Amino acid sequence: MSGKPKTVFVGDSLIEGGRWQEWFPELEAVNLGVGGDTTEGLIARLDEVAAEDPDTVVLLIGTNDVANRRGIEQVVRGIETALVNIRAAQPDARILVQSVLPRGAEYAEFVKEINRHVWQFAATVRAHYLDLWPVMAVESGELNPDFTEDRLHLNEEGYKAWLSELEPALERVHDLPPSSRPIRLPELQAQLNAEKSGE
Question: Sorted alphabetically, which InterPro entries does this protein's record hold (predicted)?
């Protein structure tokens, strides 16, 4: 027992390639990333996540489904099923689901639509949602060329950009009581503050 909150990072090669323990020394980080994994593959191995009995689950999955030309509905259903199963197995865990990362520009609208559905669904299983699109994509919707050599896997600069969003998101997740409420999007929070001040 390390006494540190156990955080499982689960997903495909983008997760597998992360040095999570090095980057988050305050956590007991467990890397359950598997190269080439799809939502279907992830769902089949969620018992690995449950076996760790984590305090927090950080999920990134879906880009290989996109590459395999699965339909939007199928990809969304896969991510949603994974979230439902994680929540059922870990009723008190914090869950942070991240948007599917951009790839080539030809995938942009497809991936955006997947992410829109996952964002809307996350709160129903008391999961937090982190939108990585603004920091990872260029205007065309392509993964920033500075962050990748193959328009899919991330280089050091790509992981730095990701961490610039993930670190504060995890801080917010851990500052909340377990499973209490989703992270509010900045514009929504501003709107709520405006409404409150106008009461």
Answer: Ester_Hydrolysis_Enzymes (IPR051532), SGNH_hydro (IPR013830), SGNH_hydro_sf (IPR036514)
Q: What is the pTM of this model?
A: 0.86
Phi, psi (degrees; rounded to nearest 5) at 48: -65, -40
Domain 6-197 has CATH 3.40.50.1110: yes
Instruction: Tell me which long-range contacts 110-119 makes (C-beta under 8 A, separation of at least 24).
Output: 110/66, 110/72, 111/62, 111/63, 111/66, 111/141, 112/141, 113/72, 114/62, 114/66, 114/72, 114/75, 114/76, 114/79, 117/72, 117/76, 117/80, 118/76, 118/79, 118/80
- Cβ atoms of residues 94 and 58 within 8 Å: no
Other CB atoms closer than 10 Å to residue 25's CB: what's the count?
10
Closest CA to 89 of 48, 132, 28, 120: 48
**pLDDT at residue 199 tops 60:** no
- Could you give the CA distance from residue 199 to residue 192 in angstroms, rounded to a whole number? 11
Res. 175 pLDDT band, cuts 50 70 90: confident
Paired tokens of 37: 């994994």
Cβ atoms within 10 Å, residue 101: 23
